[in-house]
UniProtKB/TrEMBL annotation:
Keywords: Menaquinone biosynthesis, Methyltransferase, S-adenosyl-L-methionine, Transferase. Transmembrane segments: none annotated. S-adenosyl-L-methionine binds at residues 47, 65, 85-86, 102. The keyword Transferase applies. Methyltransferase required for the conversion of demethylmenaquinol (DMKH2) to menaquinol (MKH2). Its EC number is 2.1.1.163. The keyword S-adenosyl-L-methionine applies. This is Demethylmenaquinone methyltransferase. It catalyses: a 2-demethylmenaquinol + S-adenosyl-L-methionine = a menaquinol + S-adenosyl-L-homocysteine + H(+). Pathway: Quinol/quinone metabolism; menaquinone biosynthesis; menaquinol from 1,4-dihydroxy-2-naphthoate: step 2/2. SUPFAM superfamilies: S-adenosyl-L-methionine-dependent methyltransferases.
């Protein structure tokens, strides 16, 4: 599926999120509090657009994704790209100072196993930031947003994306995803401590932070 959306993935995101994706990526970088020289895993990095934003910190950031189509679509980007599955990462234990996954954890077939695997490759004391779609907190806004997600978004995707059916999956996977509080519990039960979250755009997106 991701190979099928790769060609127009970045522009489709920007259109469907009304340009909000850029600020979500900046806030993800800020939440990681990266320092120059640190080693950072950007997992499910897709075309590497999230990795390029992280690399602005001066840290060494590697994009990793199991869709070779997505990695290929981002091949001109100035960051290292490695093919790898979140369920069996091609890295040694305690390789990274920090790890992050943006709009990817929801797609990992067993996301709790993915969280445990990220913990394995992160140093003790290392940081995790999960940037993922979530549940808007204000009831009336949540109702409007769900209408947008289930009706308008697939229609817009038909005009913009190279694989519109993938955006029907996107809407359904967001609706089925755990709330902020439940995801915090799942992260804490998967090898991480000090779990906290912050809502962005009223809870359309949540940033969960944790420590290995
Ligand atoms: C919605 S894209 C997000 C890409 C990028 N992080 C961004 O913010 O634009 C989700 C990505 O998760 C990747 N993905 C899903 N399951 C994966 C897995 N088990 N291992 C590695 N990547 C995976 C897909 O290939 C896809 O590129």
């Amino acid at each position: 599926m991701f190979d099928g959306v790769a060609r127009r993935y970045d522009i489709t995101n920007t259109v469907l999120s009304f340009g909000q994706d850029r600020s979500w990526r900046k806030l993800t970088r800020a939440a990681l509090n990266l320092k120059p020289g640190e080693k950072v895993l950007d997992l499910a990095a897709g075309t590497g657009v999230s990795t390029v934003e992280l690399a602005r910190s001066g840290a060494w950031c590697v994009a990793t994704d199991f869709s070779k189509g997505m990695l290929h679509a981002g091949s001109g980007r100035p960051v290292p790209m490695v093919a790898g599955d979140a369920m069996a990462l091609p890295y040694a234990d305690a390789s990274f100072d920090a790890a992050t996954i943006s709009f990817g954890l929801r797609n990992v077939s067993d996301f709790r196993a993915g969280l445990r695997e990220i913990a394995r490759v992160t140093k003790p004391g290392g940081r995790l930031v999960v940037c993922e779609f979530s549940t808007p907190v204000f009831g009336p806004f949540r109702t409007v947003y769900m209408e947008y997600l289930m009706k308008a978004l697939p229609a817009v995707a038909r005009a913009v994306s190279s694989n519109p059916d993938a955006y029907v999956y996107l809407a359904e996977s967001i609706r089925a995803w755990p709330t902020q509080r439940q995801l915090a519990v799942d992260i804490a039960e998967s090898g991480w401590s000090n779990v906290q979250w912050r809502n962005l755009t009223g809870g359309v997106v949540a940033l969960h932070r944790a420590v290995r």
